[in-house]
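Handout, section B. The chain below has 223 residues.
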Amino acid sequence: MESDKIIQSNRRYNLAQLAYREIKDLILQNKLKSGDLLSESLIAKELGMSRTPVREALRVLGQEDLIEVLNGIGVYVKDISINDMVDIFEVRKALEVIAIKSAIYEITEEEIIELEDKFIQFKQKQSTEQNTEPEGLSQIDWKLHDMIVKRCNNSYVKNIMEDIHFNIQRYLNMSFNALNNPEQSVDQHLELLKSIKARNIDDTVIILENHIDWSLDCLIRNY
């Protein structure tokens, strides 16, 4: 029946969407790293589905330039070059500097205090637990920088950041995995929040630029 074909088609689409989200999240979290070989059969087995939706998910990820097919070899997570990192951090820094100039007046003191508490709690936990996962710090970091963009009044900045946010978040996760001393990152964020709370634009811009440059340096040195 025609309705059965529609149901089957929708099921394949939903499974492909699920596979797409799962694989993309693994790339985002750096659990699938640049150069890793992707096996359709292993992914399908892990997700409990056939290879067809996995193949469709990989096709879409290829269109998004996250994976590449090497003929006769297989499907790989696409390599990231240092130039890629430098370029996107350059764009990120320029956009966040524009954003903070208006966002600094829109971010509430309650939001600042909430983030300060989260960074301080992470730092305290880090000092007592040797195996603290860097993912926690990455999430707090992203919340702060994402808030700066969302609170700004420049719609072009928001739209451009939306287009590149996946790669920025991916690189942030990579840089946090490379951190030998996450306390330094926490201290920089606390300094940034203190300056935002004081509504000091000039100091905030300098602190923000220095922090983003430092993050890029950490990423490059440990890549």
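Note. The longest strand covers residues 67-70. Compare this with the example in section A.
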